[in-house]
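I am still getting used to backbone structure tokens and would like to learn alongside you. To get us started, please write out a protein record for me. Start from the sequence, derive the backbone structure tokens from it, and show both lines together. Once you have written the record down, we can walk along the chain together:
***
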Amino acid sequence: MSMLVARMQKMKAGNLSGMEKHNKRIFQNHSNPDIDTSLSDQNYDLMNREGKYKDIVTEIIESQKISQRATRKDAVLVSEWIITSDQAFFKNMDPNERDRFFQEATDWFKERYGEQNLAYAHVHLDETTPHMHLGVVPMRDGKLQAKNVFNREELRHLQDELPKHLREKGFEIDRGAEESERKHLSIPEYKKAMESVKELDVERQKKSQEIIKTVSQIDELQSAKSALQDEYEAHKAIVNEFKQRGKGLVETTKKLVEKPPYKAPEVESIFQPEVSDDFLGKNVKMKKEDYSKMIESQNTSLEKHKILTNRFDLVAETLEKANRINYQLSAELEKAKKAIPVQTDDFVSKTEHEKIKRELKISEQRHEQKDFIIQQQQVEIKDLKQIVNQFKMVCIDFIKEKRHQAFDLMSDLAKKLHLVKDVNESIKQDKEREQEKSRHQDDSEMEL
């Protein structure tokens, strides 16, 4: 639920002219960037009194005062109230309901302080948030007495009863936070404070967006790092596989180069018939049957020897040719071992091998660049956190310093910046330090 904003400013004779120019937009140039002059014709006054503020206020005072003495020059002539709420309260509100809101607030002031004492009720619709400047001449019992009309008890009553009245009229609005020692800001101070709140909120949102963007960039870099790591491992596995296959092929080639052991073919022994010494002489005599067997055995052996000889010559020629090819292959393989990894049964070209080496080198460089960027981002995040913490401490000190002057405004600011808990903790620590300091002083005095 939105909170009612009701701020009072004490106006003396010297302030009326400037306030009238502001409320009625009587200026050629203005320093308030929130004023959209193209919408100023939509502003209106619920009291519709004619004349200048000075004349209207003087007429109200003179028509009621019972003393013949002149009004003091430093007297508070008007207690001007700013009545409004936050932007969310007015955002989707129907224009008729918005006008009724200001009319109901004005009616409550009429009933409480007398319609005859309301000098003006000017509604501004040409600024960021709709609001009303309502001027009350603090007359009571024929006297101008601002301190008695708007004392602390009356201010507390107004902060309670005005939002209650508006809720009864159908508006979802609550009172602001209570503070017994609060002081009311002047309109310039109030607007300056509101500008500070806006600037702080914009700065906070900007820093939050920067942090979110930085975290997102880090996540992207981490993803890129994982992808590059996977790619690097894949290339590394391929190279290792090439190396292992190359070793196997070298061993196989070496075995082929080695000369296999050859044995001469064994020939069956020639048939040797039994010979009797009795028949020895110039010619050896043997049986015809034995001679035939011997001749047949010799012919068989010669035939086998001829076949083996032919085969041996063919094998020797083939072996010599294979040895030459193997020696050539071995020499080529030794050269390839130095630069070309092996893929399956074929050699990978030197160009492809160089390409893989370049890709691995680029991948390593990307890893180094990515790690460097991540380190930079971490440093920037650390700096951003320090800035945010410094900004947070500045806000806490600002809220603590100004809370006695404008408690409601500082309370709203603390809520918007989510610093209520931190402010309370800081105040508590300040009190503890003061108590500790006081105890040390008491101890020092006792020692003296």
In short: The chain has a mean pLDDT of 78. The CA atoms of residues 393 and 422 lie 9 Å apart. The first strand starts at residue 2 and ends at 3. The radius of gyration is 54 Å.
